Amino acid sequence: MAVQDKIDVTYELDLNVSSSSNVLNTVKYNRPDVPLYIREEKISDYPSYNTMPHWHADFELIRIISGEMSCRVNTKVIHLHEDDCIFINSQQLHFEYSISKKECKYERILVHPRIFTDIETLQADYVEPFYNDFAQSYFYYPATGKQTAAIRPMIDKIVSLENSKPKAYELSIIGFLNIIFSSIYSKLPEEAISLNFIKPITKKNADLEIQRNMVSFIQANYDKKITLNDIAASGNVSRSKCCTIFQAYLHQSPNDFLNSYRLNMSYNLLKGTTESITTIASSCGFNHLSYFSKAFYQKFKCTPRELRKENAEKA
Fold this sequence. Notes:
Elements (H helix, E strand, L loop, with lengths): L35 E7 L16 E9 L1 E5 L2 E5 L4 E4 L5 E4 L6 E8 L8 H8 L10 E4 L4 H19 L4 H17 L4 H7 L9 H16 L6 H7 L4 H12 L3 H19 L4 H7 L5 H12 L3 H11 L1
Antiparallel strand pairs: 1-7, 2-5, 2-7, 3-4, 3-6, 5-8
């Protein structure tokens, strides 16, 4: 797939969200008191075979079990195949997708940095270097790589432990994560490690921060009338700069992203509530039911009514 291919970015990491929830920066951990998200997923779990662009404080690991998909991290696209792995650094804007709409099964692990150590000196030495300007936004582990062969079975074991939950399984999971994290730390450039002792955390890429602010604005206000001027103002940039940033990070226009997000939220509500289609359309920012139904069909290849009927038959 060429980088310029149109990407339909359309869904949240968490499938069970309400229309008012703020999920772009939060993670539903397996246990609320233990900051770990460990699950097997399929790209088809997400409508249009896309996760929604998101970011979080957690480090992320993905291991492809079968099939293939693409992962966009900030402005970079990484094509992932069976047995590939990828580590995504904290606070990076990213999403996964399959333009071909073919199945991809994978394991996803999110781990908050605080899981590794509460010792200040170790935190400074081994965690904070991931946050400065020299640290990579991701590390790609191809299937045939030596390091991949070392970390892949540990990822599998972590998921297996989470599924079977033997006695003290969390301690074993954290042990495996520490070994993996140590291996990833060894890939950091010397500049990231040495700079840490002078200036531990430098400011994030300005355009990435602006993109996050604009996406957050849309998420918080998608149910209202929003113009391109409003989106640009939320990032404190001009209209043209706003469009340039959206194109660079999400490969679509601000208005396309807004419309996609509204349709995504309507999809959630149609499946998860009994509210009328008219009410849902209005609550997601669509003032005309005919336009909503047409846009919904173009995106999901079914009408809102057909989706609700299909969902009722499965229940």
